[in-house]
């Protein structure tokens, strides 16, 4: 067991978790529980006011975070979305010194999935994700993203969105997600 600086809801920061060599399926209880960034991780990321760390139920997400979200005052954007964000860290940098395109695409998938959750409950899967790279993010930039639902048909949710650094769009997004079950009646 190691201490990896990630904790779950109700757990103490620095709780012992299985070594990375243990397959994720052996760690299903922690995966279902979700994990949140520790106070040290949040402090290092220096999120702008209003951004809170998100709970991730994905080991892949743990490696790429911490990620944050902000719900605007009044309870939401006019299109129902959240704003997600992350601070570009050394682990996100490519050989050219910029945020790796794979990280931007990972973040894009998370941003659009957040918008899907305004109209559907998980599980759903990405069936198409198009990322048009327009500009780059560099070390220490605060990157944000927003997605919006543009249509629904035959169990598919279509979306668009953008990834930004400050007020500059660095990537345009479009995608489609397949719903794996209908939303439960409330």
Automatic annotation (TrEMBL):
Q: Where is this region: Disordered?
A: 1-23
Origin, by domain of life? Bacteria
InterPro entries found in the cross-reference section: ACOT13, HotDog_dom_sf, Thioestr_dom
Pinpoint the Thioesterase domain residues: 96-167
GO MF assignments: fatty acyl-CoA hydrolase activity
Pfam families per the record? 4HBT
Q: Which UniProt keywords apply?
A: Hydrolase
Family of the protein in this entry: Belongs to the thioesterase PaaI family.
The protein's name is Uncharacterized protein (TIGR00369 family)
């Amino acid at each position: 067991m190691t201490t990896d600086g990630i904790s779950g809801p109700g757990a103490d920061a620095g709780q012992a978790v299985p070594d990375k060599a243990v397959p994720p399926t052996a760690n299903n209880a922690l995966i279902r529980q979700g994990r949140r960034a520790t106070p040290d991780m949040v402090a290092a990321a220096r999120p702008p006011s209003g951004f809170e760390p998100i709970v991730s139920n994905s080991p892949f997400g743990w490696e790429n975070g911490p990620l944050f979200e902000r719900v605007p005052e009044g309870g939401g954007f006019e299109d129902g979305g959240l704003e997600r964000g992350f601070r570009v860290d050394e682990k996100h940098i490519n050989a050219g010194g910029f945020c790796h395109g794979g990280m931007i695409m990972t973040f894009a998938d998370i941003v659009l999935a957040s918008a899907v959750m305004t109209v559907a409950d998980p599980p759903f899967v990405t069936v198409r994700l198009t990322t048009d790279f327009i500009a780059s993010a560099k070390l220490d930039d605060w990157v944000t993203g927003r997605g919006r639902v543009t249509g629904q048909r035959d169990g598919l949710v279509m979306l668009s969105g953008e990834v930004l650094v400050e007020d500059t769009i660095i990537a345009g997004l479009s995608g489609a997600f397949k719903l794996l079950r209908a939303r439960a009646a409330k």
